[in-house]
Amino acid sequence: MSGPAVPGTVLVTGTSSGIGLQAAVAAARAGHTVVATMRTLEGARALRSAGETAGVNLDIRRLDVTEPASITEVVAHMLDRYGRIDALVNNAGAGHVGTIENEGLDVVRAVMEVNFFGVVSVTRAALPHLRQSRGRLITVTSVGGVVGQPFSEAYCAAKFAVEGFMESLAPVAATAGVTVTVVEPGAVASSFVDNVGLDPRASPPNDPYASALAGYLARAAQSFSAAQSAESAGAFVAALLDGERPPFRVQTSDAARAFVGVKLADADGSAVQRMTTAWLD
Predict the structure, then answer these.
(1) Distance CA 225, CA 220 (A)
(2) pTM of the predicted structure, to 2 decimals
(3) Residue 190 burial by CB count (10 A; 0-12/13-18/19+): exposed, middle or buried?
């Protein structure tokens, strides 16, 4: 799949909703054999329904990216049943809103475990088989993996780490025929935003950041009111499985490209700081 692709066998993580669900369905519609995974199969109903509506078959499996045994089990299943892995789409992740003075290090470590180490673990398990197929490694990060955002310290740190990991891995993997791409969506209409782990009522008494948090949440609500659809973002991800080798970094919308562009042109960091500080008014 490093050149013009033929239908292959694709592992997609985090497919219970949102981008992952839509990417899995779109990839199956394009002719790929899709092993669609999620942390718990209790969340499989929406995916099964979407697959039936699209008229495609999906091999739905449990995979918790924080559990090495479940990763090993899914990889073994794919090799036993299909004999190969042609592409991995790392999509599983969890949102988080908070600031370090108000939360413990255990919370930060948990965010890193899912959003960074989970990606690393699945990637490590799949790479030997991607080398054999000269396949594609696609990781859904976020514009938050490029631009640090207020009250998203742990989440952005994890996404920055993923981007650094993949940017460093890409030239090494390329020597073995594996194409590495990171995908940076902006705001996407999905249940992701409902699972960020924030209860505004739980702010500590006399929280010095309460006013800034209210400003940030108001700005976030406005951003998500004009969000890209999960179907559009998922189709974008699935399209990277086909055709010529994609670039290392891609965004799923014009808005995401413009947002990331601020950082990539901001040598001293002042433009990003002006932009994000204004969100807290």
Answers:
(1) 9
(2) 0.92
(3) buried
